[in-house]
């Protein structure tokens, strides 16, 4: 009886293709990093452990860390749990629902804002308004906790073994905890033409608040024959339901299968609209997934 080919032997004919794909990813990411120097750039690392309870039902636990300011500062720590349930499938089309909870520990870096004031001057005939520099406010760095809960509905379509398409609608609710920091206020001295501290170590309080967002995501995946690398792209739009925001996320990456239970996700992402929920800028992400 002829021996059965090993898993790695199955991939042998495509090792050159795999190397080319990995080299292309490295080259693309290197180019994007250099391009991102004119904008903010960060890294996104995550670990996800997923358990299959029965066909169509999965639960998971995940954790992650994200950096910003050209990877110099930790921007966010995250832990979360989730579950999804397949509602319908016929082999080509499937529909599933999901729920997720996350706790985030967000870093708000120090910030300096210049202060200006308008003054009216009357020269005896006309009145003119001039804007003059008054000084600046310096907010110190602080951390703020956040709870995030989301529910989603995802439709998937797989016309053949190679292509997969998905459309995901998600309502995301975030609760920002109360937080405090210190604010130093510096103002110009008319006599010395220098700056003096108007209010040192002034306490600034941030009240608890809630944000609700509707997110729509279109994804396309491609399964390369006899290759452990599956590339994908996605575009996501987010619209604030109780506050004003309009944001886009564009992602391109690849899932690299190590074996049936382990895989690595490598991606590049660009997102717009800088707000308290998400910064704008470029990201490179690396995630590890274990499924059992």
Task: Give a description of the structure.
The chain is mainly beta and 292 residues long. It has a domain at 7-110 and 151-176 and 219-291: Porin (Beta Barrel). The chain has 2 helices and 15 strands. The strands form 2 sheets. Strands 1-2-3-4-7-8-11-12-13-14-15 form an 11-stranded mixed barrel. A 4-stranded antiparallel β-sheet has the order 5-6-9-10, with no helix packed on it. It is elongated.
Contiguous uncertain segments of 5+ residues: 1-13
Instruction: Kindly report the CATH topology of the domain at 7-110 and 151-176 and 219-291.
Output: Porin
CATH class of the domain at 7-110 and 151-176 and 219-291: Mainly Beta
Number of strand segments: 15
Strand order of the largest sheet: 1-2-3-4-7-8-11-12-13-14-15
Q: What is the radius of gyration?
A: 25 Å
Major sheet details: 11 strands, mixed, barrel
Number of helices: 2
In percent, how much strand structure appears in the residues? over 45%
Shape: elongated
- CATH homologous superfamily annotation of the domain at 7-110 and 151-176 and 219-291: monomeric porin ompg
Structural class: mainly beta
What is the N-to-C order of secondary-structure elements (H for helix, E for strand)?
HHEEEEEEEEEEEEEEE
Note the gap between the termini.
Answer: 32 Å
Q: What is the residue-averaged pLDDT?
A: 86
DSSP helix fraction: under 10%
- Just name the CATH architecture of the domain at 7-110 and 151-176 and 219-291: Beta Barrel
């Amino acid at each position: 009886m002829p021996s059965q080919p090993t898993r790695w032997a199955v991939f042998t004919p495509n090792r050159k293709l795999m190397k080319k794909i990995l080299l292309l990813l490295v080259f693309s990411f290197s180019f994007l990093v250099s391009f991102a120097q004119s904008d903010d750039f960060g890294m996104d690392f995550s670990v996800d452990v997923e358990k299959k309870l029965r066909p169509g039902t999965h639960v998971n636990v995940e954790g992650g860390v994200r950096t910003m300011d050209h990877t110099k500062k930790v921007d966010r720590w995250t832990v979360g749990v989730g579950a999804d349930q397949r509602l319908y499938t016929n082999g080509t089309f499937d529909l599933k629902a999901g729920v997720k909870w996350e706790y985030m520990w967000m870093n708000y870096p120090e910030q300096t804002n210049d202060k200006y004031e308008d003054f009216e001057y009357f020269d005896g005939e006309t009145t003119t308004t001039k804007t003059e520099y008054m000084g600046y406010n310096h907010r110190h760095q602080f951390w703020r906790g956040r709870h995030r809960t989301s529910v989603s509905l995802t439709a998937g379509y797989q016309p053949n073994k190679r292509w997969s398409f998905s459309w995901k609608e998600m309502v995301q609710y975030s609760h920002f905890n109360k937080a405090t920091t210190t604010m130093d206020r510096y103002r110009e001295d008319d006599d010395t033409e220098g700056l003096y501290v108007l209010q040192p170590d002034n306490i600034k309080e941030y009240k608890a608040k809630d944000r609700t967002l509707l997110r729509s995501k279109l994804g396309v995946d491609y399964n390369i024959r006899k290759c452990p690398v599956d590339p994908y792209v996605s575009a996501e739009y987010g619209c604030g339901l109780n506050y004003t925001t309009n944001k886009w996320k564009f992602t391109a990456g690849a899932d690299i299968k190590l074996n049936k239970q382990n895989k690595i996700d490598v991606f590049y992402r660009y997102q717009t609209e800088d707000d308290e929920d998400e910064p704008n800028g470029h990201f490179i992400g690396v995630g590890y997934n274990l499924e059992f």
